[in-house]
Amino acid sequence: METLRDQLNEIIAEACRHPIGSVARQKYLTQIIRLIANELWKENTLYYEDALQQTWIYFCNNICESKTCKAYDPEQASVITWLNAYLKRRLQDFRLENQKQQTQIKQISEIDGSNLVEQQSAKPDIPPMLDEIKKWVETDENNHLSQITLKNHPNITCQMLILRRLPPETPWKTLSCEWGVSTSTLSSFYQRRCLPCLREFGRSQGYL
Amino acid sequence: MADRKDTCKLNFMQSALLLPISLTIRTTAQQFASEQPTLEKAEQVRLNTIAVSVVNDYLQMLGVKTNLANSDSQNPVLRLCANVADLDIPKIGRLECRPMKTSEDFCVIPPDVWHSRIGYVMVQINQDYTEAKLLGFTPTVHQETLSESDLQPIEEIFTHLHYLKNTTTPQTNLSRWFDHLFDVGWEAYQTLINSHHVTPAFNFRGAALAEPIKSNEWRSIIEIRRGKLITFSHHTVILVINLKAILEDRVEINVQVHPTEFELYLPLGLQVMICDHADHLFMEAQARQTDNGIQLIFTGEIGEYFKIRLALGHHSFIEHFVI
User: Fold this and answer.
1) Nearest-angstrom CA–CA distance, B240 and B232
2) Record: contact A126-B155, CB cut-off 8 A
3) Sign, CA torsion B126/B128/B131/B137
4) pLDDT 10s per residue in chain A (208 long)?
5) Which of A120, A199, A203, A208 to mutate to test the interface with B (most CBs of B within 10 A)?
6) Which of B63, B81, B179 sits opposite A165 (nearest CB)?
7) What is the pTM of this model?
C-alpha cells in the first residue's frame, strides 16, 4: 500500500512533465491540492485564510520550476512539510503586522481619546442606489426602456420587467403566469436586452 | 469487498476541492451585501461574491486569465437587479459560480443566469464564511436545481476552457458586444480617434439598406461602436462597426472605413464588400479620389453571419462576423 507521500510524489512528477498552463498540469495540481488540503497546519486566526491562499499560490509557482524561490525538492522534505514551513512563515508575518496595527490603534485612541468602536458601528442608511435606479427606469426619459419589447408581446417591455425585478423581486414564476410567457423566454429577454441597459447605466453613473 | 466500497466512498468525498476564503474576500462580500435593501438580497450577494472570488483565485493560481472587473457580479447596479455570480474569462465567456450552504443538498440556478454562460461551478460555503469547497463543474444546466451528482470534477473546467478557446473559428460575435465582451483588436472608437487624430466629420460614400420600421421613429438605448486598424502594405485604415439594437432580435449595423491621421482621404480604389453566408455580395462601395470615408448600413438578425472584405490592389482582408 502506497503511502500518501509516495502517491503525492508520483503525481508531482507527472505534473512537472507537462508545461505550465497546460490542461494536464492544471489537473494534476488540482489533484494534489485536493489530497493535501486537509493535511496542512490549521489555526483559528483572522488572517489564517489569507496566509493559506498565499501558500497555494506559492505551491503552484514553485512546485516544478523556481518562479519565486527555490523550487520544491522532494529529496529535502515531503510537500506537506515544505508547504507548512511556508504557511507558518506567512502566518508569522501576518501576526507581526497585526500586532503592529493593534499597537498603532491603541496609540491613536490614547492620543485623541476618541472611541473608534463608536465610529465603526455607525451604520449607513439604506443606500439610495435602488431609488436612483427606480427613478431612472420610471422616468425613462427618452422612452428607451419602454420601447424595447419582447417579440410578439408589445405589452412586455424592459421598463416593466426591470421594475418588477427590482428588490423585493417578483418571482419569475409569478411573472411567467401573469404574462403567459415561459420563464426561459422572459429571462433570456431580460439577460440579452434589459441587463445591457442597466449595465450601461451603472457605468454612466460612475458606480464602477 | 469492504475495502473497495470504502475507496469508492473516499473518492466521492474527495471530489470536492477545499479552498480558503480570505479576509479580503469576506470584507468585499460584506461591503457588497451592505449595499442591498433587504436581508435576503444581502445574503444572496454575500454568497455570490464569495463564490465568484474563490473561483477567480483558483483559476488565476492555475494560470487562467480572468477579468473579474468586467464581470456583471462586480457591477453594483446588476447585483441589485439580478441574481448574478459570473466571472468573465476573456475571449471565452462568462462562467457562473453558484454558491450553496453546507446545510443544503442542491443549489438553485436562477433564471437570471440560464443563458449566456459557458458553464456553472458549484461552490459550497461554510457557516463562518472561512472555507469553500468547489464541488464540481458542468458546462450546461437542464433544470433549475443542481446537485453534486450532476457535476464533473472541478478540474474538468480546464478541459472545457481549452476546448472553447481552440474551437472557435476566427469570427467576431457581435451579440457579445452588447455584453461588453470584445475580442482583441476591437478598440473603443474614442480611443482610436484620440490616438489617430481622425476627424469625425465625413464626406461619405456609401449606401444604406434599412428596412422600413413600423413606428415613426425608433430609438435604441444601446449603441456600441468599436474600431479596428487594418493595414495594407502602404496604407492603414480604420474599420468601424457601429451597432444599434432595434428590435428584440434585430440589429442595425453601420460599417464605416476611415483613413488614419496621416491621410485626408481613403486610398484610391479601396473596396469594401459585404457578403452573406452564401457568399452572396449584398453591399459594396469603392473609394474615389476625394472620399474620406465609406459607410454601409444594413440590418440583420441575431445569429446571422456576414463577412466584410476590404480590398486594395492585390491585398485583401476578410473579417467574419456573427450577429
Assistant:
1) 16
2) no
3) positive
4) 578 888 899 999 999 999 999 999 999 999 999 999 999 999 999 999 999 999 999 999 999 987 666 778 777 788 999 999 999 999 999 999 988 888 888 777 666 555 444 444 444 554 588 999 999 999 988 888 888 888 788 899 999 999 999 988 999 999 999 999 989 889 888 988 899 889 888 888 877 6
5) A199
6) B81
7) 0.70
